Amino acid sequence: MLFTESWGTLMRLDPKLAMLSGTMTLAVILTASGTLAADAPVGGTLLSPIEPLSPAYRSMTGDELFAKLAERNRARDSQLRQYSALRTYRVSNDKGKLYAQEVVRVDYQAPDHKGFRTISEEGSGMVRDMVLKRLIESESETSSGRAHHDSAIKPANYEFNLVGEQEVGPYHCLVAEAIPKRRDKYLFEGKVWIDAQDYAIVRIEGQPAKSLSFWITRADFVRQYQRIGEFWLPAEDNTEVHIRLYGKKILTIDHRDYAVNCSSGAATESRADNESNVTQLSGRGAGESCVNSASKEGKADSE
To answer: DSSP 3-state assignment of 137?
Structure first.
């Protein structure tokens, strides 16, 4: 949910770098979901089948679902002042060969500032510069309004068609087909899983609504979220891009060690708390709280 590049320039560099524009375009799509959730393995098969809608939801329309989603998102956004997290970006192939990796600390300040600091990096410098660093730069530009694509998950861009209910990890979800209203490479077609209690997006999976390039024969993505206190923040992204003549390339982004609505001192403390693999909610004065996430390997739900 973030990025744009010149196809011609990239293709003159190397057809393999078609992955850059494809991945960045998919990132624009993903960012559109905002701070909205899941614990099933990213890109993995959901264990439970999609069940028919129960009587409580059979009469719900796509517009009504959008209205509930927007209302809850506005309430959550009004309370989200700050967060920091650790991200690990990886580019690999389908045989597990790692091309590049970058570990980054991201700091968000409401309403629209994101700062990024590289913690460590390895692998191909070209891939880091042409793919990972441009992804990060584009996200910073998009969050600040310097770059804009109308890719938000909203009624102007999509229709929702409720198809059933499904369990995603511990969350009971409504499942909706997301049908784009125009063929646009910054929109997607696929499915959205929405928590039936919080009306927060738990999982998104799909493909771009329009072909990304001659070089990209197929592109698929899955984004999942985790609940941190009352907020739903990204947990993991998995993007698979099939490049003509060069096979499948995979971008994964792992989001962990969140500290939400903390002062700088509390955020430092929360990162230390994360090492204990316990999700905590600690008071920080009147009307203020600092929420810490556990590492993803040992998350506990604070509900």
So the answer is: helix
Residues in the chain: 303
The burial class, CB within 10 Å (0-12 / 13-18 / 19+), for 242 is middle
Q: Are strands 280-283 and 216-228 parallel, antiparallel or unpaired?
A: unpaired
Whether 204 and 222 have beta carbons less than 8 Å apart is answered as yes
Of 87, 44, 21, 27, nearest to 239 (Cα)?
A: 27
Task: Lowest mean pLDDT of 36-50, 105-119, 228-242, name the range.
Answer: 36-50
Question: Degrees (nearest 5) of the Cα angle 10, 13, 17?
Answer: 55
- Whether the bond between 180 and the residue before it is cis, its omega within 30 degrees of 0, is no
Label residue 247 left, alpha or beta by phi (over 0 means left) and psi (-120 to 50 means alpha).
left
Whether the pTM exceeds 0.85: the reply is: no
Q: How confident is the model at residue 289 (pLDDT cuts 50, 70, 90)?
A: low
In this prediction, residue 277 carries a pLDDT of 36
**SS3 readout for 227-287:** EECCEEEEEEEEEEEEECCCEEEEEEEEEEEEEECCCHHHHHHHHHHHCCCCCEEEECCCC
- Cβ partners under 8 Å of residue 108, min gap 6: 82, 83, 84, 114, 143
Residue 150 is predicted with a pLDDT of 75
pLDDT at 291: 84
**3-state DSSP helix/strand/coil % of the chain, to nearest 5:** 25, 40, 35
The CA distance from 131 to 225, in Å, is 23
